[in-house]
Design goal:
This protein has about 210 residues and is α+β, with helices and mostly antiparallel strands. It has two domains: about 1-75, no CATH class; about 80-205, Nuclear Transport Factor 2, Chain: A, CATH 3.10.450.50. It is built from seven helices and ten strands. Strand 4 and strand 5 form a beta hairpin. Helix 5 packs across helix 7.
C-alpha cells in the first residue's frame, strides 16, 4: 500500500492511497478541506470558476496528483498476466525464505539475463547463488515491490516491469540495501501448463544521464 500526502500551503491536506498491485483502486481523502464562501458557491453556475485564482491553482494541483496516482491502479490484468505477477511475488517469497529449489524452478533451462551484480549476462546455473547465500548464512531479507507494467504478447509470453527494494539483515547489527530501489524486467514464457523466466535484467532505479546533461 502506497500513501502520499500533500499540503498545499494553507489549503487542503490530501491523502492519496494506491493499492500495492495492478488493478487496485486509488483512494483519496481530503483531510482538511478548504472553506470557500458557501453563499457565493451556491449562486455560481460553474463553482470552480468562482474560486479565487489561488484556490483554482491548489485544486488543479490536486487533480494532477490524482492523475499521476492512477496509472499503477488503472491496469486491468488478464488471467495470464495475473498468474505471472503472482509468480513474481512467489519469486521474492522464495528468495526471502532461502528456498533455492523453488526459486530455481521458476527459470527456464535456456534462460539468459543480466543480474544486478554481474558484469556479464548469466544463465540458469548461475542465478541461484544469492538465494543459497541467504539460506546458508541465515541472513534475513525483507522486500517491497512496486509493480509498474505488465504486458502479454500472443498467448505464451508475458513481460513484467517493476521496482524492488530488498534489505539484507546480516544478524550482527548491520544491514544493506535500505532505501535502494532497483528496476527489474522479466520475460516469462509459457512452457506447457507453467510459466518460466526466459530473460530478464536488473539495474539501478535512477536513470543514467546522457553525457551532455
Amino acid at each position: 500500500m502506497k500513501t502520499a500526502r500533500l499540503l498545499l500551503e494553507t489549503g487542503p491536506l490530501v491523502s492519496v492511497v494506491a493499492g500495492p498491485g495492478f488493478g487496485q483502486s486509488v483512494g483519496v481523502t481530503l483531510l482538511s478541506p478548504p472553506n470557500p464562501d458557501s453563499s457565493k458557491m451556491q449562486a455560481c453556475p460553474i463553482p470552480f470558476r468562482c474560486l479565487s485564482k489561488h484556490m483554482q491553482v491548489r485544486w488543479a494541483m490536486l487533480a494532477a496528483i490524482l492523475f499521476l496516482a492512477l496509472p499503477a491502479a488503472a491496469k486491468d490484468l488478464n488471467p495470464d498476466e495475473k498468474a505471472v505477477w503472482q509468480l513474481e511475488e512467489d519469486y521474492w517469497r522464495f528468495v526471502s525464505a532461502g528456498d533455492v529449489e523453488s526459486y530455481v524452478k521458476l527459470w527456464h533451462d535456456d534462460f539468459v539475463g543480466w543480474p544486478c551484480f554481474e558484469w556479464n549476462p548469466a544463465r540458469k546455473g548461475d542465478i541461484g547463488k544469492w538465494v543459497r547465500d541467504i539460506r546458508d548464512n541465515r541472513w534475513d531479507l525483507t522486500y517491497q515491490l512496486k509493480p509498474l507494467e505488465v504486458q502479454e504478447f500472443g498467448d505464451d509470453t508475458v513481460v513484467v516491469h517493476y521496482a524492488a527494494e530488498y534489505v539484507y539483515d546480516y544478524g550482527d547489527g548491520t544491514k544493506s540495501g535500505v532505501g535502494i530501489w532497483r528496476k527489474f524486467t522479466h520475460t516469462w514464457m509459457r512452457t506447457g501448463k507453467e510459466w518460466q523466466i526466459i530473460g530478464g535484467m536488473c539495474a539501478a532505479q535512477e536513470p543514467v544521464k546522457a553525457p551532455r546533461e
